[in-house]
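Hi, here's the filled form for the chain we discussed.

Project: internal
Contact: R.S.
Residues: 215
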Amino acid sequence: DRFVSLVVHFGSPPLAPETLEARTEAQLVILTWAPPDRLADGNPLDRLAGYEIQRRPVQGGAWTDLTQGLLWPHPRYEDSSVTNGEMYEYRVRAAREIGGGKVTGDYSRVVSATPRDLTPPPPPVRVDAASVKEGIRLHWPEASASDVAGYRVYRRDQATGQMTKIGPERVVENVFLDRSVRPGGSYDYAVTAVDSTPAANESQPSPVVHIVHEP
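And the returned structure, exactly as it came back:
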């Protein structure tokens, strides 16, 4: 009699996805990875059903399933349920469909990501300047963006022609008095808005205002 050996590979799980990467935008983490092409036993991958994607906060907490028990069909996932400034960890694993069920492989390497708001606020629409006894008084309309934390004031350096920041790092009010001026001096000013994010995003400068100090 002749004997025939038959090896069945149906139950072998897929290998872990490779090159899991994360990039961030404001309130968004974008995950991408390379799909596995083989099973754990070395045979070519077939019947790939999708992926399980998990996330946990770096500060502590359990892994949560972002797809709520479903399998994600693509090697790219956008997580918009995040908070700017918070750090998260992610991992992904592939699953095969076998006889109405699924067989999952090992998880990928863990990657971390911190979404940040990098969008600057709009600049002040104008700056008004007045020459007073104490110096030059600047005033501008309050910024329209809700996350503005303050302003930065710039004055043109007469030696270099460049705008140089003067005063505190962040002016809280929409008014500033420049006391370091001389009578008869000619000055150019501009103001930027700064938001309250950890990145302290700064707007483009306002239109430049010119004034001669005549107290």
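Let me know if anything looks off before we file it.
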